[in-house]
Design goal:
Radius of gyration: 15 Å
Order of helices and strands: EHEHEEHHH
Largest sheet: 4 strands, mixed
Helix content: 40-55%
Shape: globular
């Protein structure tokens, strides 16, 4: 199940489309029956989480909190029970996305699914701490973005 909580009121977002995109990503990854939480929030809130969990006192676009934190890129989750069928949670600052999208030459509507893919990849153990990790993650992101474009 995909649970979306919109805790901000300034930026309109198509939650139904976001949910559909998230499900398309999960289907493509063969995790169709896994849970993902998506919390849409403000710069102030995401800054607090970024400071608390990453020691970075600034707002960001997306934070990922993996249910299976020891997962490695490409490794499959072997769920032992229903409760184990959870990828984790994403926090997305829509305020940040609106302000940052032009830097990428994108609209808010173009940027949001890219961040959704990026966040879900983090939930699955992908990272970009070095060039080798970045290449692996970027390849996965491109493959998932192609699935969304269909």
């Amino acid at each position: 199940m995909i649970l979306i909580k919109n805790r901000q009121r300034k930026i309109a977002v198509n939650a139904a489309l976001l949910k559909k995109q998230a499900q398309t990503i999960l289907d493509a990854l063969d995790y169709a029956d896994f849970d993902v939480g998506i919390w849409l929030t403000t710069n102030k809130t995401i800054r607090e989480y970024n400071k608390t969990y990453r020691n970075k006192d600034k707002a960001t676009d997306v934070l990922s909190f993996a249910f299976h934190p020891d997962l490695r890129p490409g490794q499959r989750i072997t769920a032992c029970c229903k409760e184990d069928k959870n990828l984790g949670d994403l926090i997305i600052s829509l305020e940040y996305v609106v302000a940052d999208a032009p830097r990428w030459g994108q609209t808010f509507e173009q940027r949001l699914p890219i961040l959704l893919v990026h966040g879900i990849c983090h939930l699955l153990g992908y990272d970009h701490k070095n060039d080798a990790d970045y290449k692996i993650m970027h390849k996965q992101e491109l493959a998932l973005l192609k699935k969304l474009a269909k």
